[in-house]
Amino acid sequence: MRRAGTWPSPTLVLSLVRLLVVISAWGTAGAGAAASTAPARNAGALVLRHSERSLYRQVLVYEDSKSRCLCFTKLCAIGRQSCMDMTQPERLVFNYTRMMLGALFLNPEPHDVLIIGLGGGTLPRALARLLPQAQMDLVEIDPAVVRVAGDYFGFHASERLRVATEDGRAFVRRAERGGRHYDLIMLDAYDHQYIPEHLLTAEFLGEVRALLQPGGVLAANTFSSSRLYDNESVTYHKVFGEFYNLRGGNRVILTRLGGLPALAVVQGNAAHFAASFQPFGFAPTELLDLFSTRPDWNETARVLTDQYSPANLLNAR
Amino acid sequence: MYRTLLYVEAGWSGCFVMGLELLGGRLLAPYFGSSIYVWGAIITVFMLALSVGYLLGGYWSRHDPSLRRLSALLLVAGACAAPIMLYGDALLDWLASHFGDPRAGSLSAAVLLFSVPTVVSGMVSPYAVRLLVADREGAGAVAGRLYFVSTFGSAAGTLLTSFYLVLYFEVNQILWAMVALSTALGAVGWGAVSRPRQESRL
Fold first, then answer.
1. pLDDT tens, A214-251?
2. Which of A73, A167, B47, B59 could form an S-S bond across to A78 if both were Cys, CB 3.0 to 4.6 Å?
3. Domain locations in chain B?
C-alpha cells in the first residue's frame, strides 16, 4: 500500500466528539455568579431587556413591574443570579446576599476585601456603601457579566472597586504569590446549575485561607443540595475548622481565621449595624437566629480535593 | 484473534486519548483555572498531537509493519503518560509562576504534559490500517471500521471518565489505571503471534 487513500478523516470524526466536549465546557466552565434558589415568581410578566451570548453562557436581563434580574436561562427558568428592586435599588432582594453581610458580624471593619463572582454586583455595591474606606478586588470570569452589571445594575468599577476578569482560582494563586492579604473574602461563584469544581476543593480553600489576614473572615455562598452538602461541609471544616452555618434557601458559611467569635460578640456587632442596614430592607438582628455551629452533615463524607472533585455529579444525586 | 486485537488496540487508543484530555483539564484547573482559554489550549494541543500522530503512524507503517510494533506504540504511549503523574504538579507550579497569561501557561503546560502520549496514540489507527487491509477493494471498509472503533472508544472514554470514574477515584488513580491498561494491552499484543507476513501485506 503506497499511500493510504483513506486518510483525510479520523480527524473529522474525532473533532466532532471534541466539539461536543468543548460545547459542554463552554456551557459550564466556571460559573461567575451565584444565584438564588427562588424561581422567577411570575414568568409571564417578565420583559426581556437585554440578551447576549457570552463566552460561557447566555446572559439575560429581565424586568417585571418591580425588579430587574440577571439570569443565565430563558425566563429565569433555573433561577435568578441577581435582582435589583427598581423602586429601592439598595434593597437586598435575595436572602443569601443578606446572609453574606453577616460576615461583618465576625469582623465589622474589613479594609481589604476580595469577592469572587460578580453577578449583578449587589454585594460590592452594598459593601461599598457600608464600608466607604474599603478597598475591594472583584473577580469575574465572564466579561459579559461585568458589562451587564455596569449597564443594568448600577455597578461601576473604580480605584476602590477593581475588577479582574479572570478565573477565580488563577487570581487567588497570583495574589498568594504576590503576598496579598485580605480582611474579608467572599466566595460567590457557585450556582445551582453548575459549580466550578476547582473552586470547591481543600487545596483551593487552603489558598484562600493563606490570603486572609489574622482575624480575616471568609463568607461563602454555597449551593449544595443532597449528597454534595456533606462533602462540601467536611471540606470547609477541614480547612477552616468550626464555622457558622447559615441556612435559609442557600447555605452561607462564615468563618474567621484564628477562631470564631462568640455568639455574644456576633450579637454585639450585629446591633452596631442596625442603622446602616436600613436601606437594604432588613434588620441585622433578623440573621442572628440563623447562626449555628451545629454540624448537620455526615462528618465521614469524603473531603473534596483537586484529585477528587466531582462536585457536580454529587450535586445531581 | 489477530484482527480483534488490532481493533481493540485502536479502540483503546481512542479511549486513552479522551480520558487523558478530560483529566488534563482537571490537572490544569488549579493552576490556570477552567476558563475557555484553558479548554481551548487543551483541545488545540490534543488535536495537533493527534494530527501529527496520524502522519507519523502512516509513515512508520511502511517499514516492516507488525502487530508487535503496533503494540509497542501502546507501551510507549503508556510510559509517556507516567511523567504526568510523577512530575505534573511541579511542572505546572513552575509554569504558573512564570506565565502571567493563562493562555500561554495552559498551552505550554498541555504541550509539555500531553502532546507526546497523544502523538503516539494517534499513530495507532493508521498503522492498524496497514496491518488490516488485504486488498484495495476492502481498504475503505477496514479504515471505516477502524475509525468507528477508535472514535467509539473516544466516546466511551469521555463518558466513562466524566460521568463515573471521577466520582469514585482520584485523577491520578484513573491515569495510573489507564497506563496499566495500555501496558497490559501492549504486552498482550507484543507476545501474540503475528500473522504470516504475506497475509497482512497488499
1. 999 999 999 777 789 999 999 999 999 999 999 988 89
2. A73
3. 2-200
Fold (topology level) of B2-200? Growth Hormone; Chain: A; (1.20.1250)
A28 by DSSP, 3-state: which?
A: helix
Q: How many residues belong to chain A?
A: 317
Active site residue ranges of A:
188
Nearest C-alpha neighbor of B75 from the set B128, B120, B24: B120
Compare all CA atoms of chain A with the CA of B202 and give the residue at the minimum distance: A1
pLDDT tens digits for A85-99?
999 999 999 899 999
How far is Cα B74 from Cα B181, in angstroms, rounded to an integer? 9
- Read off the pLDDT of residues A290-304 as tens digits, 9 standing for 90 and up: 999 999 999 999 999
Nearest to A138 by CA among A106, A156, A116: A116
Is the separation of the CB atoms in B146 and B10 below 8 Å?
Answer: yes
- In angstroms, the CA A182 to CA A204 distance is 16
How far is it, in rounded angstroms, from Cα B187 to Cα B181? 10
Q: Amino acid identity, residue B115?
A: S
Read off the C-alpha cell for A174.
497570583
Is residue A127 within 8 A of residue A134, CB to CB? The reply is yes
Task: Give the residue from B39, B161, B13 showing the smallest Cα distance to B109.
Answer: B39
Contact list in B for residue A14 (CB cut-off 8 A) is: 14, 47, 50, 150-151, 154
In angstroms, the separation between the Cα of residue B167 and the nearest Cα of chain A is: 5
Q: Which residue has the cell 513552575?
A: B94
- How far apart CA B75 and CA B159 sit, in angstroms, is 24
Tens-digit pLDDT string for chain B (202 aa): 899 999 999 999 999 999 999 999 999 999 999 989 999 999 999 999 999 999 999 999 999 999 999 999 999 999 999 999 999 999 999 999 998 788 999 999 999 999 999 999 999 999 999 999 999 999 999 999 999 999 999 999 999 999 999 999 999 999 999 999 999 999 999 998 655 554 444 4
DSSP secondary structure letter of residue A92: B
pTM, to two decimals: 0.87
Query: Do the beta carbons of residue A314 and residue A124 sit within 8 Å?
Result: no
Q: List the 249-288 stretch of A: residues with Cβ below 8 A of B.
A: none
Contact assessment for residue B197 and residue B57, using Cβ atoms and an 8 Å cutoff: no
Q: Scan for cell 443565565, then name that residue.
A: A72
- Count of CB pairs separated by less than 8 Å, A with B: 134
Q: Convert the pLDDT of each residue in A157-205 to its tens digit.
A: 999 999 999 999 999 999 999 999 999 999 999 877 788 999 999 999 9
B97·A177 Cβ contact <8 A = yes
Residue A112 per-residue DSSP state: E
What pLDDT score was predicted for residue B160? 97
User: Given phi > 0 = left and psi -120 to 50 = alpha, else beta, which region is B152?
Assistant: alpha
Please name the residues in contact with A195: beta carbons below 8 A apart, sequence gap of 6 or more.
A31, A223, A224, A228, A311, A312, A315
